[in-house]
Amino acid sequence: MDLKLTNKVAIVLAASKGLGKAIATTLSAEGAKVIIGSRDKAELDKTAAEIQQLTGNEVVAMAIDMSKGEDIEAFIKNVGDRFGHIDILLNNAGGPPFDKFENFDDAQWQKAFELNLLSMARTSRLVLPYMQKAGGGRIINIISGSVKSVLANSVLSTSMRMGVVGMAKMMADEFGPYNITVNNVAPGLILTDRIKDTLPKGEDPEKAMKEKAKNIPLGRIGDPEELAAMVAFLASGQASYISGTTIQVDGGANRAIF
Question: Which of 158, 85, 160 minimizes the C-alpha distance to 121?
């Protein structure tokens, strides 16, 4: 299947590792011009070189702190000035800490808001003129399976991700006439460093992962590349009639019917 991504300009955020890196690699392999962003410039440059060597396509690395409005504005402007248009925006940011509701103060709520909701509003607003100029575009938000099913101690993440779901639905309605689709991808258990860090210390990693996966119908934790494949499809010309949706990539772990 030709995803029609050749020479599309794609921004992938929080892309130095984990899901962002896998998504950037997949889009680059499909021929997109990928611009990756994260705070750690050294790690970002390393990732860009790795992807470029693997895919043979240029990957541009630009440092950005997603919690700072001025960083986001400068980042989007740099991409727009360099390429003239932006076709794909992959919104992604590290998740807030897990804990009980009663243990979070105002500062932690504010930080989660700025990183996991406001940042996505900012990037989406700033890419809009470039996508309008290009005659269309794709905005894809990486959120969490907690928007579909209760996840213990995830009050900060769930609250902000639910905000993204509502925002994306409104944006899909408003941006439809511009031929811009807006969708969310909600990962379940995907094998990233964040998941590895939650494994009990001192236990056999394979045994610990099997324990984590025991309630997943497919019987295993997902690979980042499997989620990246969904993102690539949503970014493609083949997904031109999909908008305003939240799609889970979780091996069937969520049992909810709706």
Answer: 160
For residues 197 and 208, give the distance between their C-alpha atoms in angstroms, rounded to a whole number.
11
CB atoms within 10 A of CB 159: 18
CA–CA distance, 238 with 42 (Å, rounded to integer): 35
In the numeric block, the tokens 């804990």 are attached to 99
Helix, strand or coil for residue 219?
coil
Residue range 94-123: mean pLDDT, rounded: 96
CB atoms within 10 A of CB 70: 8
Helix (H) or strand (E) holding 187: strand 180-187
Measured torsion, CA atoms of residues 185, 186, 190, 194, in degrees rounded to the nearest 10:
110
Phi and psi based region of residue 2 (left: phi greater than 0; alpha: psi -120 to 50; beta: remaining): beta
Q: What is the pLDDT of residues 227-251, one digit of tens each?
A: 999 999 999 999 999 999 999 999 9
86 SS3 class: coil
Torsion of CA 243, 246, 251, 252, to 10 degrees: -110
pLDDT digits (tens, 9 = 90+) for 137-157: 999 999 999 999 888 899 999
Sheet holding 88-91, edge to edge: 59-63, 33-38, 9-13, 88-91, 137-142, 180-187, 246-249
How far apart are the C-alpha atoms of 158 and 102, rounded to whole Å? Answer: 15
Q: Are 254 and 222 in contact (CB under 8 A)?
A: no
Are 59 and 32 a contacting pair, CB within 8 Å? no
